[in-house]
Amino acid sequence: MNSKTHLALLMLALLGQLAVHSAAEAAESVADTPAGASQKVPDEPQKPPVEVNFGADLDLLRNVSGGMSRGGRPIVHLELDIGVDLDATLGWPGSSALFSLLYDGGGRINTERVGSQLGVSNIEVPVSTFRIYQASLQKEFADGRASLLFGLYPIDTEFQVMDAAALFLQPQYGVTAELGLTRGPSIFNSTAVGVRAKLLSEDRSAYALGAVLDGLPGDPNNPKGTHIKFGKGDGIMSIAEIGIKPAHGTPWAESPAAAANQAKADGSGAAADAIEKYALGYWRYSARVDDLIEVALDGAPIKQRSSGWYAQAERTLYRSAGADWAGFIRFSGTDGDSKPLKSAFNIGLSGQGIIPGRAEDTCGIAYSRATLSEKYRAAQALAGIATTSYESAWELTYRIPLGKSLAIQPDLQRIEHPGGDQSRSAAIIVGTRIEITY
């Protein structure tokens, strides 16, 4: 599909959203409720047995300076999610199913214009295509404190997740940059079949996650569409994470007015929706891949297994009567034998309601620095390419909701040493994301 087709798809989604919104308003206007009449509100809303959600993102980003070249084309992401409570529909206690269908396409600003190892947009993909993102069944045990999941499963929906970093467009605030560059992680937008196990402590404040998946998602020779193929040499990819995530996080600091408002709302001074999480993780591939530079006596590349680790923390730092501030930090590393990056560091701050009268607006600033592996630099030097020891990236963004289903998010990025290539000057990327949800 070309850029005009992508824009047409997004416009259809926008018109659909406006139609739904208008219909909802019309229904409210004809409701015959006497003035002052009370309506019974249930203590807890009943979750429907089948939930259907649709989302559309349009990134209008342009590289205005540095990098490989100036310019940029629209990037489109469409997503349909269907969740089914199998207890309510089929009488299978503690069971559920999730199906997600994606369309991704359009410009490739990083590949064509910037050349960063870290990336520019978390919805940029190599080829434009429809693809099944997730198709899984989950069974819960022990009153929901244990569960098993099987099917097409994206690890970045549960592993390496940082809520305080979810605002940002750059992809390294989801899955770590080193893992994203490996031969086959099951992440957006190409996923693999696998099994995931989850355990929660009795008070649900501590958790353990583990997953084992096919080591090479899809079919590398046929990148379009969805392919479940267990090829010879795929091996397996395994990942584990342990963490602490209190059910009711507490802000690091809180203004007296905010504490009073929360106490009035729930009878305590605790902030039920505050962010607080600390996690450690490790991942590994069983299949061996070519070392970047080391060779055997016969001249063939030595085969190495890829592995890596990460440690992350996030927490609400300060809460006032009208605004919340949360911060995050993450360190991660890999063996550096087969891919360009050896380690990475992410840190950032996000805030909500910082402008009076704009309680739902969110903003954030984030910084990442990735260290290139010595083997990658040596391989590049043999090819006559001079490299730097690192690449770094700043991002400043502000998200503005326009009603319940539409939001715009201006974004500014500066990427120093894109790709670690000394010949490239710092790239400046500006633009906005348009977001539609049903």
Percent of residues in beta strands:
35-45%
The order of strands across the largest sheet is: 1-2-3-4-5-6-7-8-10-11-12-13-14-15-16-17
List the helices and strands in order: HEEHEHEEHEEEEHEEEEEHEEE
Supply the helix-strand structural class.
mainly beta
CATH superfamily: Carbohydrate-selective porin OprB
Going by CATH, the architecture would be: Beta Barrel
The coarse silhouette is globular
Let me know the average pLDDT.
87
Helix content: 10-25%
Radius of gyration of CA atoms, rounded to a whole number:
23 Å
Total number of distinct structural domains = 1
CATH topology, by name, is Porin
Structure write-up:
The chain is mainly beta. The chain has six helices and 17 strands. It has helices spanning 3-29, 86-90, 109-114, 177-180, 256-266, 374-382, and strands at residues 50-65, 75-85, 95-106, 129-141, 146-153, 192-200, 206-214, 236-244, 253-254, 276-295, 301-319, 324-334, 341-352, 362-372, 390-401, 406-416, 427-437. A 16-stranded antiparallel beta barrel has the order 1-2-3-4-5-6-7-8-10-11-12-13-14-15-16-17. The radius of gyration is 23 Å and the shape is globular. Mean pLDDT is 87; it is low at 2-42 and 263-272.
Describe the structure concisely for a colleague.
The protein is built from 6 helices and 17 strands.
Write the layout of secondary structure elements.
Blueprint: H1 3-29, E1 50-65, E2 75-85, H2 86-90, E3 95-106, H3 109-114, E4 129-141, E5 146-153, H4 177-180, E6 192-200, E7 206-214, E8 236-244, E9 253-254, H5 256-266, E10 276-295, E11 301-319, E12 324-334, E13 341-352, E14 362-372, H6 374-382, E15 390-401, E16 406-416, E17 427-437
Parallel strand pairs: 9-11
Antiparallel strand pairs: 1-2, 1-17, 2-3, 3-4, 4-5, 5-6, 6-7, 7-8, 8-10, 10-11, 11-12, 12-13, 13-14, 14-15, 15-16, 16-17
